Amino acid sequence: MQSQPPQSASAPGPAPVVDVEQAEAALVEHYPRLVRLAYLVLPPSLGRNRRVLTAHALTQRSLPRGRKPGVAVAIPAQQGGGHRRDPGYAYVRLQVVRGALDAGLPLTWRSWPRRAQLPPLLPQVRGLRLFPRSGGADELALDQRLAKLSGAARAAYVLRGLEALDDAGVRMVLTAAGCDDPDDALAEADAVEARYALLASPEFDPCSLHARPTDLMRRRQHLKAAGVAALATLVCGALLGLPGDGWGPDGAAAPPYAQNPAAQAALDPGKLTVAATGAWRRSARTDFSVWPARGSLVDDKALLRRALAVWARPGESVQVSATPGTPSGAPPGPAQLLYAGEVDAARVVLLYDGLRIVRYAEPKEGTSGAALDFARVDGASGPEASALVVNRADGNVRYLTAPWVRSAAVRDLLKPAGQALALRRDADGVTEPFAGPAQSGRCTSWNALRMRDHSGAVRMVTDLGELTPARLTAGRPEAPREAAPADWTKSACSLASVRSHGVRSVNSWAYARQTLPETGAAAQWVCTRAETWRGAGSRSLAQFQTADGPTGAVAAKAEDSPACGPREPRVLAGVRWKSPGGNWYLLGAGSKDVTSLTASGGDQVQGNVLAARTERTARARLTGTLADGTKVPTLR
Fold this sequence. Notes:
Blueprint: E1 17-18, H1 20-29, H2 31-41, H3 48-60, E2 71-72, H4 87-103, E3 128-132, H5 137-147, H6 151-161, H7 167-176, H8 182-189, E4 209-213, H9 216-221, H10 224-241, H11 261-266, H12 279-282, H13 301-312, E5 319-322, E6 336-343, E7 346-352, E8 356-363, E9 371-376, E10 387-393, E11 396-401, E12 405-412, E13 421-422, E14 434-435, E15 447-453, E16 458-462, E17 470-474, E18 481-482, H14 485-488, E19 503-515, E20 522-532, E21 539-546, E22 553-559, E23 572-578, E24 584-590, E25 594-599, E26 604-606, E27 609-614, E28 622-626, E29 631-633
Parallel strand pairs: 5-9, 17-19
Antiparallel strand pairs: 1-2, 3-4, 6-7, 7-8, 8-9, 10-11, 11-14, 12-13, 12-15, 15-16, 16-17, 17-18, 19-20, 20-21, 21-22, 23-24, 24-27, 25-26, 25-28, 28-29
Helix pairs in contact: 1-4, 2-3, 2-4, 3-4, 6-7, 6-8
């Protein structure tokens, strides 16, 4: 959990004096926040491992030197003031920002390097590469935008978002940190969208880290001195082999760990398998194995070699993400090429190894910002193998559709009466960009991709932040059908709760209908269940939906429960409901196999719906009974 920055009052006064004890107390209490601040301000060109270690080093060196009485420090105003001032925190924060700005200055022969520009003496980690946990597409996009800013502009953006400083406070900190023109920095920071909530993501948390080995085989085979010499030779050879400022043969990949025939075959673009153009027409199944290789760059051997090398050995600068339960290791053998082409501002390669879809992307210009994404797709066929996300940019998404898809359109699930918006596709099956579901804020629309295949069947999928869109179905769990927009009108916004969860499909089941007391209005009970590619981690959500409500009220939810699924197609849930006349009722409903309901207050009814008077603060427990006497608890 991140500590909150100390809030300050806005009343002016003399600058307080900070001694070592105050600064040390602030440093210990707010260490994770200060390290995150340093990590965000440091230039991404340092690489994630160096950036993590430098952020910790700058924070640990932020205390005043010696045991003198102290130094004066000005405290900028923060939004939401009213709490006690903390001059100790203001002092160490200023030192962290100053050090991070110094670390981003270029080294020149005309002056001695500053301490922050050199690799940190402490902390030191040998034999491991450290990097924060990977976030989603939004965090990657924000990191790329921040990387294009100057150090001062990056600091201004972070001080606004992470520290909640107003512009006057940011200007005060930047001036004290040695910035020549804080106003220019603020203006440059204004060009980046204010998505400050993302700054608290695990993507930017240098205190919660992953570790990977640097070079296992060489350490086992050589003495320390011989290993250092071999590593120096390898680095020099790699630098000499780079063609100017462009990509090397292996792109952003790390040095190879071992040489063996199987590994070499998996990295050879000439051994990539390719399905014939019409293979899907003759195949007994329609899955990713019958997708032909498409795209304008399928013959670019250099690009394909970089993609395979980065897949096997992603370097420190590569942004790696994987859906839950998806291994992110090297390919076990030659993979299948699905797509290689230019999409928006990137070159994209899609590969398939029988278990996973792997997306490699690199910018058209420059050699930084390569990304590697993994998604598990074992057992995918038909609707689940009909589309892949090929790119996301600025809230829009593009899909690569299967060869058997004849047409594509966009449907807003919140507007079932609206018309479908036809999507243009290029010759390779890549759709034009369209707005994906909102990542945050109010849920005012939820777009889904509607596809019609060669047989005329219509399928709907939606983007949940992963390479594979989630299939939408409706009906009883043991025999679901393809969903229509009306099935998801009041439940679509609940899909945000399973974003980036490795979801394979989501089913919406209207399991009961009920007449409301006093009003006689109709209401329905709906259970939505998200199934994952890995099997574990399924999520069920019971909702109470009225005719006049835009969305349903969540009545109960459960994770890793068989209820509401094909193994146990039954569910029971209840809510407290206030009538227009001001009376409170306990409403409950079970699936059709529930023959009676009993409330803890003694109310009992025959059937699968119940409406009993209750008090607003009363705690009630609902139990259902099947025809054979089996008790059914509420979903939880």
